[in-house]
Amino acid sequence: MHTSSIPNWNVPEPALRRLPWYLSYIKLLKKKGQTHVSSTQIAKKINVSSTQIAKDLSYVKISGKTRVGYEISLLIDVLETFLGFTSQHKAVILGVGSLGGALLGDSGLEQFGLKIFAGFDVSDGVIGCKINDIPVYHIDDFAKYNNKIDADIAILTVPPDNAQEVADFAIKNGVRAIWNFTPFRIRVPEHIVLQNTSLYAHLAVMFNRLSVNASNSKK
Amino acid sequence: MHTSSIPNWNVPEPALRRLPWYLSYIKLLKKKGQTHVSSTQIAKKINVSSTQIAKDLSYVKISGKTRVGYEISLLIDVLETFLGFTSQHKAVILGVGSLGGALLGDSGLEQFGLKIFAGFDVSDGVIGCKINDIPVYHIDDFAKYNNKIDADIAILTVPPDNAQEVADFAIKNGVRAIWNFTPFRIRVPEHIVLQNTSLYAHLAVMFNRLSVNASNSKK
């Protein structure tokens, strides 16, 4: 197995989304004491073809040896670095309501490279509080705050009515990526990264599929 | 505008994921006092073509009138019902660690039709506690509990090492859908609904795009 020092950054999104699956699985294999893995073994477990897996892994400039496969420890290191999980990415949460507060309380994100420095809101009920040791400030103080901290990522958990306005405000004050958890479809300039994670859209798909299954089973 | 009593359940997933965007936007328009909306107006805001929007809305058996467009109040009702946000879907959370605990604390999901009845874990630190007034039990009590409650949906927030095992266990005990928040790619029988929401995959995409933008701006 060999790695090159320059990874290919131009990775299609579906491949990027699959890489963490492989990482998760081979970490499990490592815990079990396994040292090498083939794309065929990953394929059997993950429900992705071994050709696809080999192609996805070639984006990170890593290739398996014939018959031996990939060296697990090295593959874990390379994947974690490539996926950005070993660097610290600075983030803030805009909107400390129910979901925003919940995300502030989730320490797990930090293990994947996301360090949340502060939350911002307009409600007296949360301003001045700390959640999971992270302070919550008034949104009016964001410009001054981000001038110092220089957070790259704004996690957007405001009510949908304010989603676009708050996203624009965050971008104006220096954030380079918006992680949008609101059900609102915000728009951002081309140089800004937008990642939508709509729990509600996922609920809609799940509810619909459950209904379909229920009506099929009645037939 | 007319509606038929039998909606088309066989909706492609991308359409299902877009419908909540339209809903969110027209709810905002309603708050502003607007009574009708055209697919062209939605298209301008949402960055989806008006043809696509009209097609997506036709799945819910609703069509706009020429020149007047869709009646907003009716469209909101029809969409909310169709998406399942107005019914109560019973759920449990398996794994009350950092993310599971955070989701228990998020009351917002209930407004979208997801009612979480209980959390389950193996750790003495959380068993017997209540989070957001929702009790946490030992996972060994799940079979007995779900016999009574009959939860449809298991929200999976266990460590990735146990994801498959706990999913199998939940399915064996009657759940019909798994909402998988772990980075592990679990497999389920064909009649079981699986929805993956990997925050870590979304992080990976966002980190990568940020790196690409940063290296482009240096050129």
Give a structural overview:
Two copies of one chain form a homodimer. Chain A is of the alpha/beta class. The first copy, chain A, folds into two domains: 13-83, Arc Repressor Mutant, subunit A (Orthogonal Bundle), CATH 1.10.10.10; 89-201, 3-Layer(aba) Sandwich (Rossmann fold), CATH 3.40.50. In chain A, 42% of the residues lie in helices and 17% in strands. Chain A has helices spanning 13-31, 39-46, 50-59, 72-82, 98-104, 142-149, 163-172, 199-218, and strands spanning 36-37, 70-71, 89-94, 114-121, 130-131, 134-138, 153-156, 177-180, 193-196. In chain A, the strands form two sheets. Chain A has a seven-stranded mixed β-sheet, with helices on both faces. In chain A, helix 7 (163-172) links the parallel strand 7 (153-156) and strand 8 (177-180). Residues 1-6 of chain A have low confidence and may be disordered.
Class by SSE composition of chain A: alpha/beta
Average pLDDT reading of chain A: 91
Overall strand count of chain A: 9
The named CATH superfamily of the largest domain in chain A: NAD(P)-binding Rossmann-like Domain
Would you identify the regions of chain A where 5 or more consecutive residues have pLDDT less than 50? Answer: 1-6
**Helix-strand topology string of chain A:** HEHHEHEHEEEHEHEEH
Main interface by residue count: A-B, 74 and 74 residues
Q: Supply the number of helical segments of chain A.
A: 8
Largest sheet of chain A: 7 strands, mixed
* Shape summary of chain A: globular
Which CATH class of the largest domain in chain A? Answer: Alpha Beta
Distance between the termini of chain A: 54 Å
User: Which architecture name of the largest domain in chain A does CATH use?
Assistant: 3-Layer(aba) Sandwich
Proportion of residues in helical segments of chain A: 40-55%
CATH fold-level topology of the largest domain in chain A: Rossmann fold
- Rg of chain A computed from alpha carbons, rounded to a whole number of angstroms: 21 Å
Tell me the domain tally of chain A.
2
